[in-house]
User: What shape does this take?
Amino acid sequence: MSRVGVLRGAAFFALVAALPSFNLAHWVLNMAVFVLMYAVMSSAWNLVGGFAGYPSLGHAAFFGLGAYSVGIWFEHHHLTSGLEPFYLLPLIGIVAAIVGLPIAMIAMRTRTDVFAIVTITLLFVAQTLAFNLHTFTGGAQGLAIPVAPFPVGTFERPFYYVLTILLAVAMGITWASMRSKFGLSLESVHADEDKARGIGVQVTMVKLLAFCVSVGLVAMVGAVWAYYESFVYPQFAIDPLITIAMVLMTFLGGRATLWGPVLGAVVLETAQQVLAYQLGGSQIYLVAYAGVFLLVMLVLPRGILPTVTDRLRQRRRRTSAAAASRSAAHGGITVPKGEAA
Amino acid sequence: MHALIQGVILGVLTAGVYALMASGQTLIFGIMKVINLAQGAMVILAAYLSYQLHASFGLDPFLAIPITPVALFVIGVAVEVLFLRPLRQGDKAELSLLVTFAVALLLEGVISLGWKTTYRSINTSYANSSWTVFGYQITLVRLWAFLLSIGVLVALYLLLNRTRFGRAVRATVQNPESAQLLGVESRLVSALGFGLGSATAAAAGSVYGLLYAFHPGSHYDLISLLLSIVVLGGLGSIGGAVLGALIVSVSSSVVAATISPAWSAMTFFVILLGVLLVRPQGLFGSPVRGAI
Assistant: This one.
């Protein structure tokens, strides 16, 4: 990750930021909003599930926390410019991180599979709470949120730009941690937590920090989602499918990579929206989605990016080896370039 | 006090079914180190199958129990061979979570294609009859369900402890490498074990269909319940699963009877977190590999 990486990132975000000015149809922009949401959430999930190797299945609980925070805020406030909920986002992120801390402190005493179980249980408990705490959440009737007062022609844009900023933040955090001791510590937790602790890595600190940052970002996306949809129902705000989407996108793109989760979100969310649109209803759609899901796991268990980079590296190695043997035939000095690549 | 004791009775009777579902789950984990998130969906599929048998042929759900487990056994073996076997050993634990969740979605989709998404329930002639003992109500269905679950659990225990296959399974649970060296076909044991776990889910599903109304999405309610039971008892321990089922079922029905039904779903999570604080490996789980 050098100057090329920075340039690549700048080009990507310039393209993303310019996208709405091409006068795209509403449904395309709507799809882009959802792709961005999932890109942010997958990138955030990747910090815990990809780098630290703690496959959390409870992130949707924090998505719901963010969504309900906006809903509850609207009970007491009114809109003027329509941008107020966006100013609230950092606060929501911090609150979610604080709520996540004690949960992580208990849940992260367990490892991989048990951790997944504890977090998925957390998810369902959060859903039960959302149904039962009528006074705050409105129970099964949910909360209605006023529609944002943006002009109809460019309604999606404010959400789109806010999500672009969130994506930049999430990817920025990932990028910075990949270059720092924090990222190394996370990787060592993934590789062998006991050994890492033994050689003095602040294991507990780094994994708690990763969890809190991660759920904070997800909660912010939940808040944007609630405002965008202008309603919050328990079964949609705290949905196991949201958790699974984050996980699947990260796995599809490539775990513990910077671009993997984003790539996964683009591919899968587009496919999902198209499938849902083409097949209608939730029935065949569910079967098709599960089919895609299983296919991805079987064909690309490591994800697109790691597989592709490996292929490229192998090809480069092969061509450089061929070049080396050619130059050897010409009587030149051979250098085992293949190893350096 | 009356409500409390009534809650305990109901809890104990329901615990039998939960124990049955969870023992299949914990068996699968013990053998393969796979957490089967599709266990709940398999229970619901079996409930629909025995609903259909009852509706089409008038077959009593209790008599359907030899049939649905056979069907689910086949499905379970197919899932293991097609989807779980190809996973690489290194990240099997993580990937199998996703794969079994996908299987759960697939089953949910297939069920809603076959039976629509409305609630169904199996109405037998004895569905509402009950006995009153010392002023406490015992519904007949629950009592039969309890006895039947105990029967299946005993059969499972005998299968694991008195047969060659059972010995191979226990050997694999304790140490897969040594078991393989001693001539246990671990691939075969995995496939059959997954099938057996699914068949247990099917037996529980036929009973579940008698006790509750269900719809294709019902398996979401079961996932967290089953997982809490299994983690509470200690992953891979069938005795632990039975105890976990008792704790979860009794505590939530006591809360439902004395405080409010709305909060009963919370109870097991609080207990689970409490136990994990003290013993991260669960009540009966060993920190490394244990016996079933």
Summary: Residues 287-292 of chain B have pLDDT under 50 and may be disordered. Residues 34 and 203 of chain B are 21 Å apart (CA to CA).
